[in-house]
Write a structure and sequence with these properties.
Length: 112
Amino acid sequence: MIDQTAFEQLVGEALDFLPNELGNLLDNVVVVVEDHHPEEQLYGLYEGVPLTDRDDYESFTLPDRITLYRVTLCQDCEDLDELRDEVLVTVVHEIAHHFGIDDDALHELGWG
């Protein structure tokens, strides 16, 4: 299992992988790392209001939050390459929720 700092670097690499056009559309979103979800075995979680569901006044709300769960991801991956890939998939998956793309559509696109 890699430590918090090394894991955060993987998350940063995944965010850097995003096309600039997509990254520029991420407004008022914070990405954080926690060890694990308190109730479920999740890789990641998006909490917020998807852009497709926002009203004009909601641009002044607290940031949306994307959480990646380090311990869960590390335990389910056999090596660093697999972990790097899974972190990327998880980052893309959670960011897609920010843009209003649901799990069914993500599965159809091969990101679920």
